[in-house]
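Annex B. Sample input.
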Amino acid sequence: MGYEYLDHTADVGLRASGPTLAEALRQGALGLFQLMVDLERVTLKQEVPIFCSAGDPAILFVTLLNELLTQRDLAEMLFAEFRISNLAQRDGIYHLEGVALGEPMDARRHQPKAEVKAATYGALAYHVEKDGRHVVQCILDL
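Annex B, continued. Sample output.
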């Protein structure tokens, strides 16, 4: 699994990793929604476009997670898959384009576990490990 949860006083930390920054971000998105619902209960019926940008990879991580939470609320959907079609750095800004796949929320079938309000800048970090894995982390406000 490309993500793990970190102990935090009232909230929860999320650390995600992958062989590329795009995969680390994708794993973080999976970790975000797995915290809220069992992803195996969510079918991939609809796509929602995702666009975000930030000045560095760590802030892009928080921006992406908050964009996904916004889309969850606006579309009243749960997402179980994330596809990043483009991740590029232009003029010092990281730009991400992709889609979130899922279906409308059904509390009886999905059996929600936790409510995540926002991704925060708490414990925010990004680094590349010696083996080349990209690691991002932040605190999620429950």
